[in-house]
Amino acid sequence: MVALFHSANEHVMYSERTHKLALGQSSPQEVERIYVQTTDNIYTFKVTRQGGLKQTRFYQIKNVGAIILSKDNENDFTLFFFSSIDLHLRSNNRRELLDLLTLRFFSFNRNKTLKIYSVSTSDLIKYKINNEQQQKIRGNYDLPPEETRLLDQEIKGEDEYNQEQQQAEANVNEMHPFE
Q1: What pLDDT, in 10s, does the model give residues 66-85?
Q2: CB 124 within 8 A of CB 88
Q3: Topology (CATH) of 2-175
Q4: Less packed terminus of the chain by CB within 10 Å, N or C?
């Protein structure tokens, strides 16, 4: 598996047998995958008939656009990417996996907030379908509404934090203009 990494300097930070939701069939099916998160990247592998491993997906952690959680269970989530296919997984350790992913994302993107949304499982599948590659090529993205964000689980990027601070100061100055 390590031989398939994009850099010899990557170290495995998290690994788990997961299930990926495959939507191409008439009804969604789960297929087993091995999720591996290194210091820089996310890989998914499938076990071949010969018992070997074949890489099925590769993502850079810094390019995660959002995390969409299922509020109906503690396992399902989608990693949204603006420029590649989204990754819909079912993990028995979702919280641990996503906490580590969020911290690594923030180490690459101090100015950006990694938005985390919580929606029903049926909406989770809808967003996965609505964000197919052809839509993304056209610049069309379908993300959940802002009111479904889990602000208490996000690490604010500096840009969003500074914007909120400026808005708060403006509100105070509006309420007390002569102080």
Answers
A1: 999 999 999 999 999 998 88
A2: yes
A3: PH-domain like (2.30.29)
A4: C
